[in-house]
Structures
1.
Amino acid sequence: MKKTLLSFLSSLKLTIGLLIIIAVASILGTVIPQQYEGGQSFSHLSPGLVKVFKSLQLFDMYHSVWFIVLMGLLSLNLTVCSLNRLPTSWKLFRKKPSPDRDKPFEDLPPDRILATEKERNEVIRGVEKLLHRRYKRASRKDTANTTFFYGEKGAYSHFGVYIIHASILIVITGAVIGSLLGFDAFVNLPEGESTNTVHLGRQKGIKKLDFTVRCDKFSIAFYDNGMPKEYRSNLSFLKNSDVIHQGPLLVNHPITVNGIRFYQASYGAVPGGQAYITIKKGNEQGTTIKVKLKDSFYLKGNNATATIERIEENLMTMGPAVLVNIQSPEGNIRLWVFKYIDRIKEGIPGLFKKVPKFDPGLFKPYYFKLKKIESKYYTGLQLSHDPGVSIVAVGSFLIIIGFLITFFSSHKSFWLRVDEQEGKSRISVAASSNRDPVGLKRETDSLVKHLKRMI
Amino acid sequence: MIINTTILSWVTFIYFASAVFYMFRMVTGKEFWGPLASLIALAGLIAQTAALILRWVESYKLGIGHAPLSNLYESLIFFAWTIVLLYLIMEWRIKSRNLGAFVIPFAFFSMAYASLNVKSGIQPLIPALQSNWLISHVITCFFGYAAFTIACGLGFIYLLKGLEGRESSSPFLRLLPDREILDELSYHSVVIGFIFLTLGIITGSVWAYSAWGSYWSWDPKETWSLITWFIYAAMLHSRFVRGWKGKRMAIMSIIGFASILFTYFGVNYLPGLHSYF
């Protein structure tokens, strides 16, 4: 029982099966909208389907129990497979083949056999010196008329694949640590305001920070063609009313305070901006006043009071507008004051008949015009605390090291035999490697070249 | 039209000519076309390099200086550039022109798609793209894509070569390299591609960590690059562990390339963070 479970966990079939299931699930996840903040409508899906999807956690698939189980199985499979094979590789690494073997020298091509007039002992001394210089792991064995040598390099290449597998497990460990001990959160912070409470993302709920963040100013810059160039929040971080950090937050330039990283994620306009309204009577110049929401002002002569009820950045795509409520002895009048009223009037003939409250001259004898709105922005901050990041980084770095070892190094073994034939000393060179035949040939050619130079 | 896009639209035709000459060489079996095709491809590569440099300089003149790697048009152009560069290096290393007819067309298609369907203007970088990681991420990804493209081309040749030996084996099939060599080359291309894809994913994660607050957010492009990574990992494992070679590897390198294409283009039809590519 134990054995069958173990062999199941270490089978390549399981690996391939898991990879296929995870791949198919991931494809599903890219097609079904993923969200964890809630509130998104699935109006294009039937309610029954939504129910099924929800029970399978398909709307937050990558964090669902079954997806995590799949990833866990894959990690287990990776571990068991690696441990299973490790002893074999260790043996290959440790193996010191006895140099006096004739098998490697069978069918040797002629250019791997060198002959010389030099005396045999001198040749042996030279070969030994050369071999020890080239290979750390070299050995010698003498038989009656023959001396054998063995040298090798790159035995460590057997471990490349374990470095890769271990690094992948390190990355997964880092990810698990991050999701268990870390958090992600967001907060929308209007200019001039501060907070120490943020909304958690995946975990849901709110979180209190042990410091306060204040948005001093938010600004956007545009390129000439209207594309956004820069989003910038000037932030101050305070603890017990001392500023502990201060600086601009830009996209791609997060700020880290007390291990929590702040990101510029979004922005928007908030009510609370200021409006400049020009009021005139007949043909006179008129006066421009600055008003905020709920401000009231007195209209001379008519004994009327006007109150600002709404300030809109962009009312029904007709541009900035302000709702003014005028109370006079004759009654109540509400009217929208637009910035681009002339353009709107041109676009909709007979507008004031249809919608009297868009008429800037509705309250006679006054005429209102919106000069401009100074919006107040909020900055959307993304927060994250992830203690697993450095582990993931180490793992990623090691993967690349593992790749270099696995793909660009090989275990190369060389057998040399020195004997005598027809009164001449003879050196035979044989070689083998676990992979990379091209590299082996290059290395052997170089060895033969050096041997030739010596004799 | 600005000078760099003019040159680039000419380069499209140059690659087309090169691909046609590589095919002439195969079909007629006359070596004469080979050097011509290589020379034209090299000329195209030089012209394209010049155009890319000009485009880079031009962006600085517009006051929005950035490497020409920032939108779909520029990425398609760079994709073609990496394919031709890697191919020519390989041609020089293995001293064989047999693969040109199967690889250079990919460069031509990429260029043609760029010039026909995509806006070619130099655009400024939106805040999310203003990062030093842009260059290393795009370069590593596209070298990976190019290596996989070559592996896919080799896969096709391998399958074609399989037709040889039947009654009417045409001369051009005999001209193709041996299947063992094709298999070996394809393996090397996949290894190069796999390393670059991994580097691309890592550089992308580092960038995401500094831009979006998370090194991995299961965005469709990230997910699809992981699926692609799985496919090639499975391919390498079946070779290492099971000793799979030949036809199965050829088919897998074609499947892998399909996944690359989806990661590159298909993902744009799904909602996500990579929408500018």
2.
Amino acid sequence: MAVYLLCFTLFLLGIYCILRKRNIIKIIIGVIISEYAVNLFFILTAYRAEGRAPIYSKSAIIENMVDALPQAVVLTSIVIGLATTALLVGIAMRIYEKYGTFDITKIRDLRG
Amino acid sequence: MMQAMNIIPIFVAIPLAGSFIIAILGKRPRWAPDLISGFTTLVLLAASILAVGIANTHGVLVYSIGAWKAPIGIEMVLDGLTAFMLVTINLVAFAVSVYAVNYMEQFTSKSKFYTLFLLMLAGMNGLVVTGDMFNLFVFLEIASVASYALVAFGTEKHELEAAFKYAIMGTVASLFILLGIAILYSFTSTLNMADMASVLAQKESKNIVLMVSVLFLMGFGLKSAIVPFHAWLPDAHPSAPAPISAMLSGVLIKSLGIYALCRIFYNVIGMTAEVSSVFMFLGVLSMVVGVFLAIGQWDLKRLLAYHSISQIGYVVLGISLGTPLGVIGGLFHLFNHSIFKSLLFLDAGAVEYATGTRDLKDMGGLSAKMPATGTTNLIASMSIAGIPPFNGFWSKLIIIIATVEAGRYWYAFWAVLASLLTLASFMKVMKYAFLGALKEKWSQIKEVPVFMKLSMGVLAAICVFGGLLIIPDVADVFLNRARNVIMEGVDYAGLVLKSIR
Amino acid sequence: MSREREKGMSIIVKTITRLTVGLILLYGIYILSHGHVTPGGGFAGGIIIALSFVHLMLAYGKDVALAKLPKGVTSFLEGTAAIAFLSIALLGFMTGYFFLNFLSKGEEFRLFSAGIIPLCNIVISIKVGAGLFAIFAALVLLKFEPEKKEKRK
């Protein structure tokens, strides 16, 4: 139970970063932290009591293995996170080139 | 090999193949990206019209990828709602692809544009076709990330700022959706939509389903720009190049947002009265807030973006009513809005191509020099304002009648008021941009090139004849099938599991 | 600075890199080719292979690494691997289902078994490796001066 609470705290920490930090790079780091927290939550729900790693070999007995499906799912999710992060960083660098600053309170041309 | 269900993976495989081929070919020869993209979208349009016929004759078609049967494997499901969305998406994509042949000459890297455009199309097609929850998330992310890159395509100041805001908010929404999927998986231990629906119907599950409903409402609500999750749309849609604005406003917010909400809330979780009334309230809120904020706008594309929020409110109100008439009204308005909103954005792009400005105060009397753009804009404005006999009138009428029949008189009043304000807003656009005296500096402009005129003409023709879709014989083929899928709710699971061979 | 600094990092880092970068590449290929028997597979193997090139770039400077793997080759590899993956899927489509595992499956736990999965692993690793290296190269090569802020009118 405590593990789930810690995972949720990590998620909320990432969301706090996105909401309150003013530097674009810190906002991107907040996004990364939240993504990792959600992936961790998915893996945590796959644990079975006294489970072993779900690797099948010639001498393994299929009993008491943890759930293997979330592991494949989280692998896909990590790749998606990588692509999103790369795009966000590219946009952030171009913003610095055009606006001259990383401070989001000064990047407010569009409004109304 | 020629079984009917083999058509389903085509919708994902062909745009992906086109996108990768354009990525390798690059810029040589010059006509290659245009030709490949136009050909791909034409093939997809033909396949989607064929899919409507197939869905009518065979009912629900299920295709198991890699011959792994459910509930282990990933499945693709083709039923009435899927066929309806496929026609909408591919029709608008074909028109936009033809339009972009001329419009994107202003930018330098056309091949990168077509790569991203076909990737976004593959993501949207894949999302409406899939029958597996995590596969839906993967296609959602493909389409979203491609659209973030497309909004930033021109790399000017405003486009980058809008793209950054859109990307951060879209990523947070995707995180909420993934959290919801994780909680649902841990509760039902399956990812297949039909299997999940049958498990949820049997287990005692009120609190978890409530939490997951809230998470999905936040996530998919942001993707479909329902108030209060709409803040990214007025910045992102005007800053994108015009063909991408048409795609974003016309199909992306509907495929990623409204279709996913329908599929999950009607077919998987099951619609209850509380969720229904929350959606109705949010729909009416979107309607009113969108149109009030749109009245004071002087930037043409920003005005159209606010009207998108308002019209999506109509669609959400119609679909969440839950009565057969309301659902048909909502779905019909979804199709109509794709057509006339894309046409409006393409017209705004044509104006920008010819004059270089988006400010309404700067323009005046343009229809003397640009008759095709002026006529199509008039047709689209009358459609969105709800003037008979254009298609917008019929769908809005059905939604208002359904709201009155369901006893929600206040909501019907707000719907009529929003419609009147939409009419006023578009009369302002027509007056300032197209009618009136031609200003001195615009005396040299010419009409837009042929491909742009062609695609705008096709969409305008559908606007004029779109009202025919509600005739009972024609509606049976197209709209009624989609309505039946939504109305049968969680029986979807039984139908799909039976159709697996 | 009056004297041109030598590119890359210090001599200790360069020596260790020269010794280990081949081993990292070999380790990545091992993870990728045994993807159907042990944990790992295409994505993990591809990332490790890309990291060996990134290691080279960090230790020696971007010119040496880009001489080994130019930008044009990286883009071409990425696109080709994507088309190869799609054509493996479509080959399955021709003979049955999309992504059908149509090659022989062999005995379990041997290297040449499990149908199309090793082929998919190889293709995915090329795509992911080329993609990661391209992202890194693009971020390193981006040269700009920040625009001077103009006075607002």
3.
Amino acid sequence: MAELFRRLRYLLNRRRFDRDLENEMQFHREMSTGMGHAEFGNLLRLREQARDAWGWTWIDRLGQDLRYGVRMMARSPGFTLMAVMVLAIGIGVNVAAFSVFDMVALRPLPVPDAQRLVRLERRSPNDYGSEISYPSFEFYRDNARTLSAVMAVLGIPPMQIDDDIQGTSASFVTPNYFTQLGTQAAFGRMFDPRVDGAAGSPPVMVIGYGLWQRRFGGDPGVVGRAMYLNRKPVTVVGVAPYSLATLGGQYPDVWLPMGEQPYFFDGSGVLADFDTASVRMWGKLAPGITPQVAAQELRSLTGELRHRRPTAVWDKEFIQVSPGGHLQILQPAMFQLAEIVGVLTFLILAVACGNLGALLLARAVQREREIDIRRAVGASGARVFRQLCTESLLLATLGAVAGLVLGCAVTRIALSELDAPKWLSAVPDIRILLFTLGMSFASAVLFGFTPALQIARHGRHKMTVRQILVTAQLAGSCVLLIVAGLLVRAAHHALYTNPGFGYERLVSIDGQLKQHGYPASRAGEYLERMQSRLRTVPGVRSVSLVLLPPLGHAVSYSDAVIQGANVRVYPNWVSPGFFAAMQIPVLLGRTFTPNEEHVVVVSRSFARAQWPGQNPLGKRVGDGNVKDEVIGVVADAHVNALNDDDALEEYWRAAPDQMNGMALVARTGGTVENLATAVKSISESLDPQLFPEIRSIQSLYAANVSQIESVAGAVSLIGLVALSLAGVGIVGLVSFTVRQRTKEIAVRLALGATSNNILKVILRQFSWPAVIGLAVGTGIAAASSNILRRALYGISNLDLIAYLGAIGFLIAILAVSVVLPARRALRVNVSKALRYQ
Amino acid sequence: MPMETSPKPGMPPGTLTMLILRVLQSEALHGYAIAQRIHLLSRDILAVEEGLLYPTLQKMLLKGWVTAKWGISENNRKVRFYELTKKGREELKDALSDYHRFAQAIRDVLRTA
């Protein structure tokens, strides 16, 4: 310990101690020369040796190396700028990707005890339910001792404020929701668990900050104002704060206490029904309780609940407890996606580093003289190596700073573009800084280590190293290009594919009959009256019933195996007029007739997959005792799977007992707005309690397309970055290698070789790296892109065009970068080239 | 640049430290005097190189075996005198006993083998 302090004293007073040493040695020298003794050695060197004992030499050397590195960089600003830019792109892409992951999954919500918040979901070996029935929630809430609080959220279709045409998004939450999150209202108050939603207390609502700005112009006087929500009077008690943090990242415009659900939805029994999974459940662990302990207790509670209500619990059900104090709960599929993105972005960095490494190697040739001199005056290989590594670290640090700025700028733009929750900021937190540090170190190793080793060893194997570099770069670029190509192809495919149905001037009308307590028979009557009234509206061409309306909230599918292939089948239940209303052509056979049973209509792709080359009419499908006969084949129409080109469809006739779940589609010759107004007035006269959700399929479709467009844009940008990095790197490396052989080419020419011979020799040098690099890259891409399958909108992950495009592009680049410098080399004046070196 | 401070061939490792400790036992000396003293006492056989002396002294300072004080030399020059500390005396005792033990062992082997 004392020794360490003494060492530190030496470090801090280095100058003084060094002067002491110098004086002392000077004295020694004078004495020994005075006495006629042997000569004293080099004073500076001796002092250095003595100083070594203090153990701080490395700091001095680092300082020297850094100063030298800065001088070297300043001397070639072009190279430095290029290197920093390449690194900034490589590191910036990674920082941006990691920032997004950090925001979504790692950054805790800005609420008290965020780490104690947990998401509670129903699981069993075979089933998963994001929602649970409200009475079950109450059971867990009242009995769980390992949870200090349990919250529930009930999502509902948009509600109507006063006489608005446009609906407003709304959610019911248990009144403890905001007290548990510690939310302070911007104006007024949030919910009070003792009062709000309790029987007999006046109906209240809290409005979101965005709605407050848009609809009420930010007027604080809105607090206390009485309004109508779905025609029911309600009082605004507060405005949610601007930077509101919520569970699961949900931001409805209107917040209502759970207890008011029956008030707004007359006749609804959702809050008392054990069999309807309706709410999302969240909890807060009691202090000191781990999620495992809570899961254990919930497991036994589930057993107790099964005892009381056998139908409310699945076989082998348990409650899954996962961390809930982040923006999103990561599902395994999202983790997989994060992994893919992570690998791809790291690959971009690797390719960038490969380019930089090649540049450094190329520069090493220019620096050969300088390094030779350093060796000549006594620098060892290790010392040169250390010097070069320091220079790389310096570059990496600059690149990391630039990359951090770039990454954060990109994240900031993305945040504002994506309408992200306002509490998120693009300011890097400690995790992002550490990540950037790690990335800069990794990149320094990636681009600096091999060249430094090579140069310090006074490279005899430069050729081999360069060939390995070319191979690695080709492989990395190949993977990047193929994946980028696949994504771009997929996005464009999704953009320009006909969805198979006429989405223009089409509306879906969903009255939410079941939620309003309609039994099936009454719902049937209601829908019948609604349809006949709609048909009389001027401009309306056709009307039909459908269980799962196009681009709806709910999607249903089943995965099946047909003829050995995995397929996804989307079923739907419709009335006979559906195909006409949706403009889906009937290709074979007919559609349903009224009151027909055990018949089914399938899509063309379904028929082709199931009965290739046969007449599908009259075939039977289904796996129960009663099979359904195929009476018709219609064109493919991905009504509920707009982005899945492989989707297969089956249609059944809507049965009378499904009526309270049915929605309507209507096609008009006029404008959608007029139709919407007509629907509202019809609905008003049929049942004033109902507020059907009217959605324009055309605008939903447009929203979907613009979403794909932005994805395609982002992907194209990444592809472009990958493309330019790959291009620049390969051209630089290969053409440099060829230029280096100018002398050799001159010798060969002098000895009588023809241009063709020489070109062949040079090409041969790169044929193996090219073949191996492309093969490895293609292999990796093919193996890993399998995971991308679902994201590819129906493009095969082995899409030939993407693969051939990438490989062709790389070969073309390689050829250009070999042939151009080689031609220049061939045109040289032989005697001049020989004399020059 | 490799900068070993290993002793001259012929001088076993650690010996120099022991010798310095020993010559400092009776009085404080400056660097040149230490080298001279060792040279004289060994009847001109052991020459202490400066390149070895000063790094060793620095190490000993760090270990706390000696302290350095500026004083005036015999020819009226300002120079640094090294003085043994209590810890240095203990170290010398240990080093000597180790040395004697080894020397005895080597003599035993040479005599009987």
4.
Amino acid sequence: MQLQPETQSKPAALPQKEVDALMQHLRDAFKDSPDYAKRALEELRDEISTLSDARMESAGRIGNRQGEVSELTIIAPLVKGGAERLRKLLKVLHGNFQAADKVGSVHDMRFVFIDNDTRLLFATAYDGDWDVYINDFATKIPNQLDVLFSVVEGWPGIHSPQVKDFIVKYQIAADAWYVSNPHMTVAQARRLEKIDTALAQFLDKIS
Amino acid sequence: MQTQQETQSKPTVLPQKEVDTMMQDLRELYKDAPDYIKRALEELRGGISEIPDTLMETAGRIGARQGVVSELTVIAPFAKGGAERLRKLLALTHGNFSATEKVGSVHDMRFVFLENDTKMLFATAYDGDWDDYLDDFVSKIPNELDVIFWNFEGWPGIHSPSIKDYIAQFQVAAEAWYVSNPRLSVPQAKRLEKIDKALNEFLDKIS
Amino acid sequence: MATVSLELTEIQATLLRSRPAPYYGTHVMLRIDDARGGRELLHRLVPHVDSAADWWLHDNAWTAVTLSYAGLVALGTPEATLRSFPTAFREGMAARAEHLFDFGPNEPKNWEAPFGSGQIHVALSVFSGDQTKWRLASETAWTQFRELQGVTLLMSQDFGAQPGDLNSFGYKDGIGQPAIEGSGVEPLPGQGRPIKAGEFILGYPGESGVPLVMPQPDILGRNGTYVALRKYQSRVGAFNRFLRENGNTPEERELLAAKLVGRWRSGAPLTLAPERDDPALAADPRRNNDFDYAKDPHGYQVPFGAHMRRMNPRDTELAQLTDVNLHRIVRRGTTYGAPYDPDAVSEGDDEIPRGVYFIAMSAKAMDTMEFLQKEWINKGDFMNLRERDPQIGLQDKDSVFTIPQHPVRRRIHGIETFNVLRGGEYLFMPSLSALRWLANLGS
């Protein structure tokens, strides 16, 4: 079985006039930069003229999305002793995020303590729009969410009607968001990994 | 072709005695928490007793990794006028990250302006090891890096020997890092999408 | 009879009375020109609005009265009360087009008058299983506003009485409904466990244990619910052409029609009748919904993209964590216009007025409609698919529909939009006491 190689579609390009205008704007913005930066800028002309096909869009109420994959970035204050408690909890869990597996749409997720353990940075890449399934999480994994986020000052509890507003309060939309495979959801990735295994076994059998 | 391991492997279950000790540690940790949190904690016992097969490890000098996917989280101060220039740059290039495509090892990446444009949060998920990742960027897209990072306080220029120290200085390691498909690298994901497309076309033809 | 813990005498009948077979009725839309006239209208209608107390009397005619936000404003509802309604309801369905994925042909600017104009203030519906009783009830309703100053009739549409009780595409529809806890209605096999009343009626605890947000004051919100009304034009020509192009024999075409929905056109579910239709099964309400998808993990019986499986996934393993009980609606859709014509194949046939007034009710109908439209109808990710609902999805130029089968799945290309949205509105269905409260505004 000979699979046809995928034809590489050429990315669209901006018309030269537009690129010229853009470059001029950038030169203005960088007019006080050292020479090496100015030279580097000139080298970027080609790249600047190509258009990416996946545009950054809104992920709902707040946050950004490229294709199917969205970003959620939160910086929230921790209660006194909260960092220590969360640190210990995460250690005890051995980085076991069964709940995230269950959610099924989380690509990646990190917990970072900043500002001398007074604030929590939570950053995730996930599929779709963030507020759409929050009621589902509230009935299916309320305990995990409550135990984890109880270290955040003012956490109203996952069942509170204020919970979405609470999240929005501490969420900061990214100004730029890039995803390598914008149309690959977590479920799609898992399915494709299975197909790959099956395909390899099949090809082994017939060769 | 490398044979794929079975992606859905059963997690290891800890012996009851160990789980009991863990639960006791957690109860101690949450002794001042409100009742609903204490109850929620008890509900987590089942999840706590299972250890996933891919645990969190280190990405090298700094940062966390799960499987092949690592995290890098940097919070850096802007140089004078740097925030404004970077905003202009991002706006003018319409979120065009063809440079990052070139590097080929970045899963996702976000730029978040913080604290009235005095600082920037840069958070990414990438393949492999910290040192290799930075070497890759430096060798493949030095111009882009200079043009972007010159906007930050104290940027030594991409070819300076202290470049890694500069990044490490502003990087914060994640306490916890979760990845949904820890064995799926960016090139692998792209390959799988190609296979999926070709396979669908083939199956359409023969059905 | 199951336990009753709801105030049935307050709740409007439509919420619990299932659609009879055959069914007859009329939808009337009115505009309130001055507050006094609007209040007088409600005052006159209230004695004729039925409660859910005798929910089993399907053959009796019953009248339902609902109001849009614009209608509440026209009635002179106090500002604080108006502000207590949810944003989506206040904006009205036309303004929520982006949230509802109502693009292209479904855009509000393409809607039929009076939809989308903001003039639909009161929507009144008469339902009955008996033709004579329907006409009597209809005449009674008309008498209340016929000579009334201060209200204007915008449109009136008779519906129902289709041959065989089939919808515009020849299907028996409206079978699956949620069971509501405390309603006293004995659940039918397959409806699943009764869902907390608060998901469907305001003022009672929902699935999370707390009541959903309710408009104020209490007397206005309690025992009320919201209605999402969407009028669709059914493109029967396109549908028949699709069956003929993708099925060579009448049997193949019927099976294809079944695969699009998950039920044969008789109503028999594919899960219980995977290869051949079973009209006796279809006609038995104690059997025709009694199934789940436990034995169909690959979609060989009911495709994952089939309309029924999308709208109620039951125990299907979804791509992301979902509580299916949070996304249910009570449906009281009504077919209107010309009956199904198996020989209609022209583009002209697509335009012959016929289709459905899709009516969905729940205590959070706006949220649920917007969720369903965006997540489960016009997207397939939750089922790990890249396609849209074959019955009510807004299709693209090269949309596909996948039928899992052995040895190779069948993917049909070029599926068209079969139901086009001609208009819609979000409505509030007040309790009987709430209707009286509204009728007495200003006094």
